[in-house]
Structure formats: C-alpha cells, structure tokens
Amino acid sequence: MSGLMTFPLLVLAFIAVLGPLVALHEWGHYIVARLCGVKVLTYSLGFGPKLASWTSKKTGINYRISALPLGGYVKMLDEREGKVADSEKHLAFNNQHPLKKIAIVAAGPIMNFIIAITLFWVLFLIPSEQLNTRIGSVLADTPAAAVNTPVGDKIVAIDGHNVQTWDEINYRLADRMGETGSVAITLAKVADTAETKTTATTTTSTTSTTAKTPTTTAETPSVAGGATTTTAQGLTTVNAPIEHFLQGPQAGQDTLTSLGVLPWRPHIEPIIGELLPEGAAVRQGMQVGDKIVAIDNQPIHDWFDATRIIRDNPETLLTFNVLRAGQEQTLQVMPQGKRDNSGHQIGQIGAGVKPVDIVVPDSYKAMIAYDPITAVAKAFAKTGQLASMTLNSMVKMVTGKVGLENLSGPITIAVVSKQSFDISWEQVLATAALISLSLAVLNLLPIPVLDGGHLLYYLIELIRGKPVSEQMQIVGFNIGFIFLIGFMLIAISNDVSRYF
Prior knowledge:
By secondary structure, the chain is an alpha+beta fold. It has twelve helices and 21 strands. Strands 6-5-7-10-9 form a five-stranded antiparallel sheet. Strands 14-13-15-16 form a four-stranded antiparallel sheet, with helices on one face.
C-alpha cells in the first residue's frame, strides 16, 4: 500500500460505505424497540470513547458518535444492567415477551437484507450493454480444456442454474470454492455468421503492471470427469473436473481463469507501445516497437498471452524473445512483484501497448435490462444466492475445505470501498450491497455476542417459557467473545499480509 495520502482516502471510503450500513442496522433495532414499548437509552454509531453526542429533551435518548467506526449499538433499559424504577419496569427490555425480544434483535440483520435487496434492485434497473456468455477462448491445461469445451458456444447454465451474464457465472463458480468433483457447464450452439454490425469503443493502453488479465492454472486436475450430455433442445452439458477449486496453485486466480473459460477479447498484437522509466523492461533493454514472440519458449500470439505469463511469474527471471527491426533479440527480464487489488502478488515489467480501437462483434454482445417487477425478483434471487454462498463459504472454512486466508477484515473493506469509488457510483452501490448482505449473515450466526446468539437465547426462552439463566448467558457470551476476537485477529492478519 503506497503513499501517505492513501490512508485518509481509505478511511473516508470505509466510513462512507460502512457508516450508513451500520447506522441503518442499528436503526432497525432502535425503531422496533420503540414500537415494542421498550425504553431506548443510547443510540451509538461506533464503539469506544464518545466523540460527539446529543440528548433529546423529548425522549431522553442519547445519540452519539464514538471513536471506533467498526459497528454500533442501541442500549435499552434493562434490569440486568442497572437498577430500574418500579414505574419503568414495564419499559425494560428484559421484561418483554420473547417474541418482542426476537423482533427487536432480528430487526438489525433484517434491515441489512432490505438494504441489499434495494441496492440490487436499483442496479438491475440500469440497462447495460455487456459481453454475453459466449465463450471467447479456452485456456490450456484447465478443467474446461480437459473436456474439450468448444470456443464460440454460449454458456446458459452452471451446475443446472441458468445464467445470463458473466457476473452470474462468477458467483456460481465462486460457490464451488474448495470443492473436488466436476462443474456442469450447459452450452448452446451459436451459428457462425458474418459480423457486419459492430460497435467501436476506445480503450486506454493496457500495461502488464495493471491489466487484470486471467492467469492459467499451474497443473491439470487429475480427477475424473468429462461426461457429455445433449438435450432435446440442442443444449450440451460438459462436466469439467475440478480439484480443490480456487485453492492451492489456483489461489488468487479469478473463477473464470481457474475453470478455463474466458469471454470474448480482442486480438492485440504484443508490440511494446510504452515503457515506464523505472520498469524492469526498460532496465533490461526492451524498446518501444519490440514485438514479443516468446517468453520462456512459450509462443506469444497476442498481448494477453504475454501479460498472463508476466503476472504469473513475479520475481522470476524470464527469457523474452522479441523481434526488433526484423531481427530476433533475447532479453532476460525479471517481473517486479506487486500486490494486486486482492492482495495477491503479481508480476509487472512496466510495459504497455498503444491505445487501440476495440470492435466487439454483435454475436458477443447483449443488452441487459429489466423492468421494475422483474428487477425485484432478480434482487431477491441474488440476495438469497449470495447469502447461501456466504454461509457455504463459512462452513467450508470451519471444515477446512477453504483456507482461513480467505477471511477478510476491515482493511479489505476499506480497500474495496476505495476501489469502488474509483470505478463508478454503480460499483459503490454493488459494494455496499455485498457488505450489507455480509453484515446480515454474519450477525445472524448463532454465536453469543452477535444478534444470532441473542436470538438463540430468546427462542429457547420462548420454548421453555422462562429465560436462559444469567450464568449460562455469561458463559456463552465469554466463549462467543473469544471466538469472535480470534476470527477478527485472523482477518486483520490476512489483511496486513495482503496489503503491507
């Protein structure tokens, strides 16, 4: 992480994204508590020392902003936390019916679900032209290549779930993280026609230091797979074998690269168009106009081939064969290691190509647009899918299928928030929706200290007809606190290793 100026921006982005989500989560607890006739004493955004506060003369509620912006709380009148006057005992939280307690505690996570659904709904309302799910290329030595997945076919389902965008494919594949078996890819044939109508868009130069190009897997999966079926509708399903998907050698790769299917991409000649003064390429004699023809004896057909190898080999000496004025030259270049947006180390040589006009064939384009009613259904479906995927990931971490290095903490939230502001307001909404959803799922875990732990106690109280003993609750809260602190320390440690 570079530059002292970056830190204030990260903090501001963190607060701008997480602050409203925390405020509305606590507002859920707050408003339902007041509707249930419970006296609220404090509404705080943040924990720790008080930075600013205001007390309502009408209600006596103290509203405050505290120093640690990692959450918040609503403090209610409760006989377990202090003496309560006889005249106010009916206003104390501990004296409420279990159903009221459940409603008050559940209101926070429910509010986060509502926020996620609303934000996804807004995003689904925005029409966008995207690359459709037609396969542009299949990477060698990957699960997709192992079953001869045909280039040019359109992916219409993953593991039996219909997909319309690459984003949906990404989420379906991410849900298979850590698993061994096969991914069912359902394909539809696309007739080859002459591309007569195209839309041109201009891109900026792509460099090996920043390009988010896919990377190949380090080894071919050894599990069995590959059975192919064809339906009456002309759809074909191939079962691509996966082994510890997105883990081990594949850790840090994107889902599409790990599977081996990529969207359409333009052919860009691997000709050096620019060099950074401090880059490894210029220091080792590379010049503008050089055409890369091979790296470590691997033929280079376009710029993406070159960037993929460079990204995969940080701090590794590579042999570049380049054409210069019709003569082949051999250069030894070691890509410098750099942390990417996900905290994984990638290689960079400080070289790029000239800006090019990219023409996307019509058969690879799709206009995605939904009416308000359909957008609501899509928002609910996406929220449900991502909530399930989040829970599934947590279970895999506990069972060891997925490493704890995938756990992220506040630094990652800050970095992702800052990156979303750099991209677009739509990305800010998407990031906020994902974080809100994560807050909802996390808080509903049946761990004492979290909302889910409280809900568990009140469900037991509802069934038994009497509260769980205070001693039992204290023991549970202590265990839950230790458990939560342990996971927080792991998450922060992961963050530090990613970005520092």
